[in-house]
Amino acid sequence: MRLVVLGGGESGVGTAILGKKKGYDVFVSDFGKIKNNYKEVLISNGIDWEEERHTQGLILNADVVMKSPGIPEKVPIVKKLIEKGVPVISEIEFAAPFTKAVTIGITGSNGKTTTTMLTYHLLKSAGLNVGLGGNIGKSFAEQVADDTYDSYVLELSSFQLDGIVDYKPHIAIITNISPDHLDRYEYNYQNYINSKMRITMNQTEDDYLIYDADDEAITAWLENNKTKAKLIPFSLTKTFNEGAFIQNNKMEVKINQDEFLMETESIALEGKHNMKNAMAATSVAKLMQIRKATIRESLSNFQGVEHRLEKVLKIQNVQYINDSKATNVNATFFALDSMNMPTVWIVGGVDKGNDYNELMSLVREKVKAIICLGVDNKKIIDAFGNVVDMMVEVTNMNDAVRMAQRLTEKGDAVLLSPACASFDLFENYEDRGNQFKQAVHNL
């Protein structure tokens, strides 16, 4: 059996290692450059590879192709494979049959990384033998090659879910759905929603779907489509006989005739959206029968995720906050919503079809100045030019942070929450966040 892997990054190289171990004839092809550390892994495992090209003769003869999530389906080589009827699948689909471990799959436009990390933290603190993978950390396929874990917590992007056929998580979480990556979905929001909901398409009566019952896109989909999974909703406004909710400043989680209670102020994560992430993760912990005391302790000591509303420093009584992971409008909505001081907002980057109107009332209420950090800021300027007193354009992080410092006074905050992808000026959102932190430390 010939396995061709498109993309020589974390998921690609992990899949190649697993494929080789399971007796496939493996070939890795990357249209860009493969990083040296990944090349060394391929060479030491005796896996053939090429970079900066896709040689059709070495690819179209595949029995199965694993496509890295970053490669769109409209790429010519992928189109040719699909025309030929060669299965093009994701790393998750390829790896899942090779492990008996229980998987917990987590998707959503926002909150999925925090929910994934918190769920992993809850299970690991309880002493479970659990791995972490998917869109985060070490390749799931590579971990399956060693197969030492009893369960995995997987962060799943819509792109990874597009490439599944039979994969099903035993427990699925959908944190929320808001317009994102529409450039990959013909600018059709429904296509993107359907993509996210694929997480539950193969689930059976023995599986669970944990979802945000306040989310219009999810609830509309559930009204019009069937899933066999047992539904476990969570909400900030409703209460349930089976599900998670907030009542009298307490988080309540009722599952299988058992109830878990915790004061919301004892939960380390702050902000309404993080209460939702905590409810989702706690629902998993309850399903995995983790002791209440352990859950309480883990929820109260969780450190949060880097680049997500991360408090960097206070300088001259001005708080600098790194929310570089906010790559869409909905994520920035949460960030602005959680601000309780006058804010200088650093925004901009590669726009994925953003509608900034959703932020208008929050910007009016909380933002005193906007710093545009992007190559093309026209949409942001058109949206907010008349709303804030001060609007500045910059093209590097040092200028953004120095300008922000000039525009603040005691009791203000500086928030980097770009609402956009980072690829115009930075390698990725981590690079953007790290540059911000470095610039703040240099002030």
TrEMBL record:
Role: Cell wall formation. Catalyzes the addition of glutamate to the nucleotide precursor UDP-N-acetylmuramoyl-L-alanine (UMA).
Broad class of enzyme this protein falls into: ligase
Protein EC: 6.3.2.9
The name this protein goes by in its record: UDP-N-acetylmuramoylalanine--D-glutamate ligase
Domain spans labelled Mur ligase C-terminal: 307-420
GO biological process: cell division; cell wall organization; peptidoglycan biosynthetic process; regulation of cell shape
Catalysed conversion reaction: UDP-N-acetyl-alpha-D-muramoyl-L-alanine + D-glutamate + ATP = UDP-N-acetyl-alpha-D-muramoyl-L-alanyl-D-glutamate + ADP + phosphate + H(+)
Pfam families referenced in this protein's UniProt entry, alphabetically: Mur_ligase_C (PF02875), Mur_ligase_M (PF08245), MurD_N (PF21377)
Pathway(s) this gene product operates in, as recorded in its UniProt entry: Cell wall biogenesis; peptidoglycan biosynthesis
The entry's keywords: ATP-binding, Cell cycle, Cell division, Cell shape, Cell wall biogenesis/degradation, Cytoplasm, Ligase, Nucleotide-binding, Peptidoglycan synthesis
Family under the similarity heading: Belongs to the MurCDEF family.
GO cellular component: cytoplasm
Mur ligase central domain mapped to chain residues: 106-284
Cellular compartments annotated: Cytoplasm
Residues noted as binding ATP in the record, renumbered to the chain: 108-114
Molecular function as annotated in GO: ATP binding; UDP-N-acetylmuramoylalanine-D-glutamate ligase activity
